[in-house]
Write a structure and sequence with these properties.
- The complex is a heterodimer of chains A (1033) and B (396).
- Chain A has 1033 residues and is α+β, with helices and mostly antiparallel strands.
- Chain A is 49% helix and 21% strand.
- Chain A has 6 domains: 89-269, PAS domain (Beta-Lactamase); 339-384; 387-509, Beta-Lactamase (2-Layer Sandwich); 527-627, PAS domain (Beta-Lactamase), CATH 3.30.450.20; 727-880, Histidine kinase-like ATPase, C-terminal domain (Heat Shock Protein 90, 2-Layer Sandwich); 899-1030, Rossmann fold (3-Layer(aba) Sandwich).
- In chain A, the strands form 6 sheets. In chain A, strands 20, 21, 22, 23, 24, 25 and 26 form a 7-stranded mixed sheet that branches.
- The radius of gyration of chain A is 63 Å and the shape is flat.
- Chain B folds into 2 domains: 30-149 and 289-374, Rossmann fold; 152-282, Response regulator (Rossmann fold, 3-Layer(aba) Sandwich), CATH 3.40.50.2300.
- Chain B has 13 helices and 14 strands.
- Chain B has a 7-stranded mixed sheet, with helices on both faces. In chain B, strands 2-1-3-4-5 form a 5-stranded parallel sheet, with helices on both faces. Chain B has a two-stranded antiparallel sheet with strand order 11-12.
- Chain B is globular and about 65 Å long.
- The chains are: A alpha+beta (1033), B alpha/beta (396).
């Protein structure tokens, strides 16, 4: 208390009132206390006044803030509502399909969108504008107001194109105002991508402008959160004014993504809390505090004077104790208060000092006893450790302890050693100097022998080292030695403890193990099988030389790398799956392709199993690999040659199909002209030649058809028809074809149909059936010299609209041996190759028949006895249509002079005088068709191509058109299509003439609008029949 | 270390300079661009056009290319949107190696870019888009060459088909685009010359509409006996789905323009097609074709698309048209003896006769006629049960 008073003594001279106060205070402790208490009273009064002022101010502020917040919320909501109207209008427009169409179509846009948008305005109290823009920022349509702008340079425009999300920005308008700008993507319905943008703008200034007067505010502003400066401000610029309160609120607080960046609406009001109430409050607080000061000073002084009396007495007693040092002094009895506590504390202190002196002595005795016991137990440990040498040294290296274990191991007695020997005497000198050379620190000359030894042995190292010790009897001993320093209190080294163990037996065992490992490793490395072992993650942990050789890597390059790295890239993705499978199943056998170091690939067969420890968990894998590259190569080669063979076979079929197609056209000329020539008057010799040309060309055509059929069957392109046919018609045709040939050879010919066989309206492929039977009958006649040929037809079953027919062709010919029957159906083979020379033929007939039957669901059976005859039979399951009475077609020989004319003329009948247009570019064919028609009594006009044909048809009437399919200038299909488009030719019969005989070609003809189809070479009877079917005179 | 880096970068620059010098000296490929709707999901037309063009380019390159240079097909995606097509055309025109651009299926994308095509003097070959104004533009010389259908022909054949099935009164449903207007104009022209035919109403839809039922019912209630339907696959799928749900007596026969064959229509409407009688305009089908050109193209398609089954060729008209167009273009380049686009435009107008896949062209284009096909190639087809578009045999 004295120091501060002295410090103020100089200045106090200048203040007489202070000096007087000080003197008054010094007069009594009670004065001091009174003065200080009144100072405290003034402080407390001021503090209370301050706190109450703050509380009052605070509560008033809160009320005002609430009011302001309320206004801020109302204002923000008003702004949000206005913006939301623009937002939803913008979203709706962008989804309108008319807007989507407008992106694609300028004309439609000008009609629909432009007028609509031109006068469009949003129902909001702010200027606004809308623009529809394409991806390049070109404005396609928009409102007339000045705010219809694409703002294509803005980052938001690019962003909407990029991610499709609606973006907003605040962009400056030409009048300096800010526009809330919404970029709304228009998604294209076909791709779902953004292909246009609706840009909607509204003037933010307009929204804020009406507000200050509305809400009784001085000033409103829109600011960017956390950034200084207003974006928009309305009202006198007074943001920094004192005496104004403000409130701010985040715009779109609950949907922050709607704003381009965080925005706040800020409002200011002039009113402030407690304005006017402050001065009266301060005056009353001042008067109150002065009254408190005087009251406290007077009251405190009187109380202090009463308290000082006992204190003075206690001071006296204390001074006496300090002067005498006698603890036994009488302390006056003060029963209560701080003085009572002080006197009893003196007494307690004296007693405590006396007690601690006695305690110290008894603790020394007890500690000594404990140390002796510890020494004894340590000693017994040393003695008991008979398997180990425990040797202690002092810091000079003298041995101070040598336990029975050491005696046993070294052969010395403890008494001889302790104090007389050093540890280095047990070591081999050579070994020590070798160890010294290896130690990291260079030897220094002035180090003691002990230090060298310790450095060599390695003091306080965690692992023991192995050394050779010399026993007393001179023999050597392998020991493991660890040396630790003995520290006094954990700091100073007081000696060293050496613990050594005899390791002779362990060394012997290790040597044996190493030898066995070497033996195994040799075997493992030299085995001809590649071996690898993987850890649980699939990394190599062991490989043998054979594997290294296989992959071209050294052992060190492989160990630790993942097996997966060596799999070829195609297989890598399945590695984890396969390896997991391996680990769970415990074994694996898999063909792999592995990458070698030189980049080539080796195919291997991997067999492996998993080694597990006794509790079943993974230890490692053992896998052996065999190189199967050679086998793989062989497999690939076989596959390749098979593909080549198939491709060649396919090419062959194509070639045959093309060739037979090309041959048909000249064949038409040969056959047609021969038939016409036979119709002319000529010498018998010439007639004979012509007959032979005719039959030869018919045979050639047969061969051609066979080849075509065979190649179709071979290529799998043959199809069979399912259309109604009459069995009688088929049998009549066969009779016409073969009866005469059989009779010419002197054979009987018989067709026998059992009575109950349904004959009409069967569903199937009549042409193919006839072809099969023709082949069988042809063969029968060919191979029979005497006797008869018979075709027997019978129904074996029929029910539920289905019928099973059995056909059998029997001859009395040369017969076929069982062995020959085996080869019979091979293409290009006959029972005996000499037969080809004797009888001719392609050898395809039976193969084709068998394949055709297979397509129809049948198979050929043969019964034959060589020398007696053969029977070829088959069964067909056919659907049945409605039965109609059968009709027969007669035919006469056409190879006699005038025969063809007679026959065709009769056949044509109703067609006499008909006008037929023949569109055909080949002059030979023109001639043939023209003459056939002439012989039949019809008039033919020739057109050289489709265009000519159309021209002729437009200028003259015709009853039908025979239309070649392939012609120059305009082909038959095109001409037909053009004709069919004109109502006048809607019902004109148009019949195709074509060398193409495939289904597709036939379909093309019908598709173009043709009525029917005649194949080349042209059969005159078929020509007339077809015309009869279509021409209505 | 820094020294080493500098040395390396100098070396790299030297190598790059050398490489670019070599690249500039060697004549690059002649590029034929396809600017089409590659990015429209479910659309197959652009890919079909690309396949056809690639088959032709492979054939031409196998025989030594053109003017000693190989041809190369490059593609740009316009999603059927004019603005994208515009950007693509400008980019392509800046590349002197690009000799011509093939467009895609969507007519509006071509109609809207006609001014730019003629400003850039870029030959535009049209293998699909059918709107009449694409060719009937007022530009001279005309840079657009079409080997495809024309709406006027399509509508003629479609209305004849309606007539064949006994529907003399038809209703027509159209997109609100240049294609729709072109089609309606064609239909009305035909109606004015045909006393029997009556168009009882025309209804429009916008790209993006999700239902066409109201328009359909309006036409049906107006007395239409058949629906003349101008649509792409998206709207066709919507219409078929809605029609299939109607009672049987309310399902009119649908005679459709071919836009729906340019996307996955059959896959999505196979079930509805069993209930609705739909026929569609086509110009070419690989089915049943045995001529050498068709066989050669199918073999080429096998290499390009992995398929040579004529029934499985997707959007066959796109393949066939672009195949013939690329061959005609190659002949034009040979004839012009240079890759200058104006010279190629002139050469295209004076080509000689050529046997193509779709037909034989006596003179494919002339200065007055920029259509390589005629109404004679146009016919009605149907979807077979395997999804193949089969020519429909109309004459019994």
């Amino acid at each position: 208390m004295m120091a501060p008073l002295n410090r103020t003594s100089v200045s106090s001279d200048y203040f007489p009132v202070l000096t007087a106060f000080r003197q008054w205070r010094r007069r009594s402790l009670a004065n001091t206390v009174a003065l200080q208490a009144s100072v405290i009273a003034i402080g407390s009064g001021l503090l209370v006044a301050l706190i109450s002022l703050i509380v009052l101010y605070w509560s008033q502020s809160l009320a005002l803030q609430d009011q302001m917040r309320e206004k801020a919320i109302r204002l923000t909501e008003r702004v949000e509502r206005t913006i939301n109207v623009a937002e939803s209008a913008s979203a709706d427009l962008a989804k309108n399909t008319i807007f989507i169409s407008a992106l694609l179509d300028s004309e439609g846009r000008n009609v629909y969108v432009e007028p609509f948008l031109k006068n469009f305005t949003l129902p909001i109290p702010a200027a606004n504008g809308i623009a529809l823009c394409d991806i390049n920022g070109v404005r396609l349509a928009g409102t007339l107001a000045g705010m219809s702008d694409c703002h294509a340079d803005s980052p938001q425009f690019a962003q909407v194109l990029h991610d499709g999300k609606t973006a907003r920005a605040l962009l400056p308008l030409s009048n300096g105002h800010l526009a809330w700008t919404i970029f709304q993507g228009v998604a294209y319905s076909y791709s779902g991508t953004i292909e246009g943008i609706v840009v909607t703008q509204l003037d933010l200034h307009d929204i804020f402008a009406a507000i200050p007067s509305d809400l009784d505010l001085e000033h409103v502003a829109l600011v960017r959160s956390g950034v200084a400066g207003d974006l928009i401000h309305i009202g006198p610029l007074a943001a920094a004014d004192s005496g104004m309160v403000s409130s701010r609120r985040l715009l779109f607080k609950h949907s922050a993504s709607v704003t381009p960046f965080p925005l706040e609406v800020v409002i200011w009001s002039h009113r402030s809390p407690m304005s006017g109430a402050l001065l009266p409050l301060l005056t009353s607080y001042g008067v109150g505090i002065l009254a408190l000061f005087l009251g406290v000073m007077i009251g405190t002084r009187r109380i202090s004077l009463r308290l000082i009396e006992p204190l003075a007495r206690l001071t006296e007693i204390t001074r006496e104790i300090a002067a005498t040092g006698n603890m036994e002094v009488e302390i006056p009895l003060v029963e209560h208060g701080e003085l009572g506590q002080l006197s009893s504390a003196f007494l307690t202190l004296v007693n405590a000092v006396r007690h601690s002196e006695e305690n110290l002595e008894s603790q020394v005795v007890m500690r000594t006893r404990q140390l002796q016991a510890a020494e004894a137990s340590l000693r017994s440990v040393f003695d008991a450790a008979s398997g180990m040498a425990i040797i202690a040294m002092d810091t000079a290296g003298r041995i101070t302890l040598f336990n029975p274990g050491a005696e046993r191991i070294l052969g010395y007695q403890a008494v001889d050693v302790i104090g007389n020997m050093t540890l280095s005497q047990f070591h081999l000198t050579d070994e020590l100097s070798a160890g010294e050379a290896m130690s990291a620190e260079p030897a220094v000359h002035d180090v003691t022998e002990l230090e060298r030894l310790l450095a060599c042995l390695g003091v306080d190292e965690s692992s023991a080292k192995e050394w050779t010790w010399l026993r007393k009897d001179g023999s050597n001993l392998a020991v493991s030695v660890a040396v630790t320093s003995i520290r006094n209190g954990g700091v100073d080294v007081s000696g060293y403890l050496c613990i050594a163990e005899d390791v002779t037996d362990r060394r012997a065992a290790e040597t044996k193990l190493r030898e066995s490992e070497l033996r195994f490793r040799g075997l493992f490395e030299n085995t001809p099988v590649a071996y690898l072992s993987l850890d649980i993650t699939g990394r190599y942990i062991d490989v043998n030389q054979q594997l290294c050789d296989m992959l071209g890597y050294s052992r060190n390059e492989l160990i630790g790398r993942s097996f997966e790295e060596f799999w070829i890239d195609d297989l890598k993705p399945v590695f984890t799956e396969k390896f997991d499978e391996f680990k769970s199943s415990g074994h694996m056998s898999i063909e792999l392709a592995l990458k070698m170091k030189n980049g080539s690939v080796v195919n291997v067969l991997l067999n492996g199993r998993i080694q597990r420890d006794p509790d079943g968990s993974f230890v490692k894998t053992h896998c052996v690999l065999a190189d199967i590259s050679d086998r793989k190569r062989m497999e690939d080669a076989i596959l390749k040659s098979k593909e080549q063979a198939e491709a060649m076979a396919h090419a062959k079929s194509e070639f045959l199909a093309n060739m037979s197609h090309e041959i048909r056209t000249p064949m038409n000329g040969i056959i047609g002209l021969t038939q016409l020539a036979l119709n002319q008057q000529s010498s018998p010799e010439l007639r004979d030649y012509l007959s032979k040309i005719s039959s030869s060309s018919q045979s050639l055509l047969g061969i051609l058809n066979d080849i075509l059929d065979f190649s179709k069957l071979d290529a799998g392109r043959m199809t069979v028809e399912h259309s109604p046919f009459d069995l009688d018609e088929v049998l009549d045709n066969l009779r016409n074809l073969f009866e005469q040939r059989a009779h010419a050879k002197g054979l009987d010919f018989l067709i026998d149909v059992s009575g109950d066989t349904p004959r009409s309206n069967l569903i199937g492929d009549a042409m193919r059936l006839q072809q099969i039977l023709s082949n069988l009958l042809g063969n029968a006649i060919k191979f029979t010299e005497i006797g008869q040929i018979a075709l027997k037809v019978g129904a074996s079953e029929f029910h539920a609209g289905q019928l099973k027919l059995r056909f059998a062709v029997t001859d009395t010919g040369i017969g076929i041996s069982a062995e020959e029957q085996q080869r019979l159906f091979q293409p290009f083979s006959q029972a005996d190759s000499s037969i080809t020379r004797r009888f001719g033929g392609t050898g395809l007939g039976l193969a084709i028949s068998r394949d055709l039957l297979a397509l129809m669901g049948g198979d050929i059976a043969i019964e034959s006895t060589p020398g007696q005859g053969s029977t070829f039979s088959f069964e067909l399951l056919l659907d049945m249509g409605v039965q109609e009475p059968a009709r027969t077609v007669r035919r006469r020989g056409a190879s006699e002079e005038g025969g063809l004319k007679t026959e065709l003329h009769a056949q044509a009948g109703l067609l006499h005088g008909a006008r037929i247009l023949v569109a055909e570019d080949n002059s030979i064919n023109q001639q043939i068709v023209k003459e056939f028609l002439k012989l039949s009594g019809m008039n033919a006009v020739i057109a050289n191509n489709g265009q000519d044909a159309i021209a002729l048809l437009l200028s003259q009437p015709f009853d039908a058109v025979l239309m070649d399919v392939s012609m120059p200038v305009m082909d038959g299909l095109e001409a037909t299509r053009q004709l069919r488009r004109q109502p006048v030719f809607e019902h004109l019969p148009i019949i195709a003439l074509t060398a193409g005989v495939t289904e597709e070609e036939r379909e093309n003809c019908l598709a173009s609008g043709m009525n029917d189809f005649i194949a080349k070479p042209i059969n005159p009877e078929q020509l007339i029949n077809t015309l009869l079917r279509w021409v209505k005179l | 270390m820094l020294h080493f880096k500098q040395m390396m970068s100098r070396r790299c620059v030297a190598v790059l300079l050398l490489w670019s010098a070599v690249a500039a000296a060697a004549p690059g490929n002649i590029k034929i661009a396809i600017d089409a709707e590659f990015g429209v999901p479910d659309s197959t037309s652009a890919q079909a056009i690309q396949n056809g063009a690639q088959v032709a380019v492979n054939e031409i390159n196998a025989t030594g290319g053109v003017l000693g240079r190989n041809l190369e097909v490059i593609i740009r995606d316009n999603r059927g949107v004019p603005a994208r097509s515009l950007n693509n055309l400008r980019e392509l025109a800046a590349d002197p190696d690009v000799v011509a651009v093939l467009c895609g299926r969507f007519s509006p994308a071509v109609v809207e870019t006609l001014p730019e095509i003629h400003r850039l003097k870029m030959p535009l070959l049209d293998p699909w888009a059918a709107a009449d104004p694409i060719i009937d533009n007022s530009y001279a010389p005309n840079y657009v060459f079409r080997l495809s259908l024309r709406d006027a022909w399509a509508l003629a054949v479609m209305l004849r088909k309606a007539n064949q099935i006994g529907a003399h009164k038809v209703g027509i449903l159209l997109p609100n685009t240049a294609w729709g207007r072109s089609s309606l104009k064609a239909a009305e022209d035909i109606e004015s010359h045909d006393a029997q035919l009556k168009i009882v109403g025309s209804q429009w839809y916008n790209s993006g509409d999700t239902s066409l039922l109201q328009q359909y019912q309006t036409l049906r209630q107006a007395g239409a006996g058949a629906l003349i339907f101008i649509a792409n696959d998206r709207e066709a799928n919507i219409m078929l789905r809605e029609m299939a749900e109607l009672p049987k007596e309310q399902r009119l026969p649908v005679v459709a323009h071919w836009g729906l064959t340019g996307g996955s229509f059959y896959d999505k409407s196979a079930a509805a097609l069993k209930k609705v009688d739909l026929s569609v305009v086509q110009t070419y089908s690989f089915i049943g074709k045995r001529d050498p050109v068709a066989r050669r193209v199918l073999a080429g398609l096998k290499a390009v698309s992995g398929n040579d089954d004529p029934r499985k060729v997707v959007s066959p008209v796109g393949v066939a048209h672009s195949y013939d167009l690329v061959h005609l273009l190659a002949i034009a380049i040979k004839q012009a003896k240079r890759t200058d686009r104006e010279a190629i435009q002139r050469a295209l107008e004076s080509l000689g006769s050529y046997q193509g896949l779709v037909r034989r062209y006596d003179q494919p284009f002339t200065p007055k006629r920029h259509e390589a096909l005629s109404i004679n190639q146009v016919y009605m087809a149907r979807f077979a049960d395997d999804g193949a578009i089969e020519p429909h045999i109309g004459v019994q």
